[in-house]
Amino acid sequence: MPRRVVITACSAITPIGRTKQELMHSLTSGISGVRPLRDDGLLTKYIHSKVYGTVDYPVEYGFSRQFRKTMGPVAYYACQVAKEVLEASGLTQDFITSGRLGVAFGSTHGSPTVQRDIYRIFFSKETDKFANIGAVDYLRSMVHTTAVNITKMFGITGRVISSSTACTTSSQSIGYGYESIKFGMQDAMICGGADEYDTTTVAVFDNLLACSTAFNDSPSRTPRPFDEDRDGLVVGEGAGAVLLEEYECARKRGATILGEVIGFACNNNGGDLILPNLAGITQTIQLGLKDAAINADDVDFVSAHATGTKMGDIIEAQAIYDVYGSRPLVTGLKGYMGHTMATCGVIETIITLHLMAEGCIVPTLNLETVDERCAMINHVMQLREQNMGIAAIQNFAFGGVNTNIIIKKP
């Protein structure tokens, strides 16, 4: 029989703060975490978009050298939020190392900062190039560096899942962690994602003409999800983690239950790798509802993927309307911090948990005039008190990957 899965701890590093108090202050005050793009001395001069969702405050790590030596910036982020989740959870060391706890954690492409340093050495004119490449540089840069550095630091011996599906990375991590517990393969999972600050990610989307460029002189005014003046996404950085547990285990040990994951769906459009697909997204939303065994009318709030791109926002609005009509309230949280790539799903899940707990829903930042092609859904335009019993977190990625997570207030 499928088991219930609950969320018992969370931690985030975002452009608009870390703690629940900081995040809620930024969200309820309309504070943006988008800043001017820092000059990296290499790519910046070629990039048209000059904005970035930036973590501009210090993060104190305190990791010993035995752990630091295999970590690039993205793994630092990942291990920090995992550390905070475990500290908040109250799990014993015996449980953490028992094999009953697993890790589902990923990033977009490992550590691009470390990768770039390696490539610089490869293409340099030095005669003994390999002498300057460290023995652990691959471990610091590899695509699953986040997940395995977490297992190393905390002695976790359960299953490891390291998704790397761009914007759905941490959503898949939560979904696959949920399924691992639901069907009895693990009793708990640390799930999430991380991405570090690096201009190569901006360059990729900039080259595809998907980045915002019209607000380079006023970064806080972009991205603009669903707004008629939106002109593209803003790349961001950050990390987030949630601890998922089997309900009875969590209840028996007296854990604080923040929410319950009641549904997950993931599918693929089966076609174009870049353009959004109405049929694919609609089906993912429907499959999430089916897995949760609820009706569309049971959903109170939708955290939209809403990156601020021209076609993406229109297709998503149509899909939301096709499934839900205009009943649930809809917010695009990327207006506050940009698109944190692999991290967006888990950060948006954590924020939704905070909104549930506080009994309010925040507006989509920078949504001033709704694009008439997106106007059929119930946009949140101002802060409002609202009891939220069930919420859906939607994310979609290059490659045609779609996810839908459905959570319930405890």
Question: How does this structure look, described?
Answer:
The model has no long low-confidence stretch (mean pLDDT 95). The chain has one domain: Thiolase/Chalcone synthase (Peroxisomal Thiolase, Chain A, domain 1, 3-Layer(aba) Sandwich). It is α/β, with parallel strands linked by helices and 410 residues long. It has helices at residues 20-29, 65-68, 73-89, 93-96, 112-122, 137-141, 145-154, 169-182, 199-207, 247-252, 278-292, 310-324, 334-337, 344-358, and strands at residues 5-13, 34-36, 51-53, 101-106, 160-161, 188-195, 238-246, 259-268, 301-303, 329-331, 360-361, 378-379, 384-385, 390-397, 401-408. Helix 3 crosses helix 7 and helix 11 (278-292) packs across helix 12. The protein has 14 helices and 15 strands.
Q: What's the topology here?
A:
Elements (H helix, E strand, L loop, with lengths): L4 E9 L6 H10 L4 E3 L14 E3 L11 H4 L4 H17 L3 H4 L4 E6 L5 H11 L14 H5 L3 H10 L5 E2 L7 H14 L5 E8 L3 H9 L30 E9 H6 L6 E10 L9 H15 L8 E3 L6 H15 L4 E3 L2 H4 L6 H15 L1 E2 L16 E2 L4 E2 L4 E8 L3 E8 L2
Parallel strand pairs: 4-5, 4-6, 9-10, 9-14, 10-12
Antiparallel strand pairs: 1-7, 1-8, 2-3, 6-7, 8-15, 11-13, 14-15
Briefly summarize what is shown.
This protein is an alpha/beta fold.
CATH topology: Peroxisomal Thiolase, Chain A, domain 1
Q: Which stretches are low in confidence, meaning pLDDT under 50 for 5 or more residues running?
A: none
Number of helices, where a helix is a run of at least 4 consecutive DSSP H or I residues: 14
Question: Which architecture does the CATH hierarchy give at level 2?
Answer: 3-Layer(aba) Sandwich
How many strands in all? 15
The shape is: globular
Biggest sheet details: 11 strands, mixed
* CATH class (first level) name: Alpha Beta
CATH superfamily: Thiolase/Chalcone synthase
Q: What is Rg?
A: 20 Å
Work out the helicity level.
25-40%
What class would the helix/strand composition place it in? alpha/beta
Q: What is the overall pLDDT average? A: 95
Distance between the termini: 21 Å
H/E series, N to C?
A: EHEEHHHEHHHEHEHEHEHEHEHHEEEEE
